Amino acid sequence: MLIREAGADDWPGIWAIIRPVVEAGETFTWDRDVSQERARAMWTAGHAYVAVDESGAVLATAELHRNQGGPGSHVANAGFMVSPSAQGRGVGRALCAHVLQEARRLGYRAMQFNAVVETNVRAVRLWQSLGFEILTTVPEAFHHPNKGFVGLHVMYLKL
Amino acid sequence: MLIREAGADDWPGIWAIIRPVVEAGETFTWDRDVSQERARAMWTAGHAYVAVDESGAVLATAELHRNQGGPGSHVANAGFMVSPSAQGRGVGRALCAHVLQEARRLGYRAMQFNAVVETNVRAVRLWQSLGFEILTTVPEAFHHPNKGFVGLHVMYLKL
What we know:
The structure is a homodimer.
Chain A: E1 2-5, H1 11-24, H2 36-43, E2 47-52, E3 58-66, E4 75-82, H3 91-105, E5 110-117, H4 121-129, E6 133-144, E7 148-158
């Protein structure tokens, strides 16, 4: 497995991961019918990364951007998606570790997630194992298709 | 004083308030050198409001938008700016009350602020007096030009 910055050629593989995740509406606060154009603009607004296998297939993808502008631009934010076929193999963990390293290299002082769905237990545990803490949980801020209104964690790691 | 939805003709008066506030870099997480074009796109992406005096001069302005997309779009976010010449006269409070009413009318279930600068005591007290609570304070998430790194409150009100 290789983790590297995404290039234009990686987009079809990235979109193949993003689309079903967003459509499912269980873990991301994106419009479930997001267009490919809009998704690409959002995912590649900052830095985008891919984890690829030996054949070059995209196993997982991440994006890194500033969480706020101007006087808040020293805190990063990031998003991660792993292909269902690659789950449980440590790909997400390796990608997250890489993105944390990248955030440090780019001079960010902390990383903040604004909207981690509390029922996305696998992701919450992964972030926590990497040192993130839950600062608060915004009550009923996410409308889960099966579980109704659930909380969104604000998670934070000093870099 | 009249509070109403902003029209295209109000933009010069709105920009006259926004520009110095953003340039000062003490209360907003916007790039301090934001262009007028970008500022207008951000301030008017959702609903924009103005409080005007008898002569039609803009005393204060607000904007209201969804805090997240898709499954998070039932929670609103808002921004407020009051002209220095109109401060201490209850204009901000009246405008905030109006925007809360608007958010209810539009079907939002809560309002969340992601980045209230903790040293912006006047604003924090105003939101608290209107029922907002501080859910958490993200440490050192705002670089204040005089006070260094200070916290950003996440504030919340169920509607």
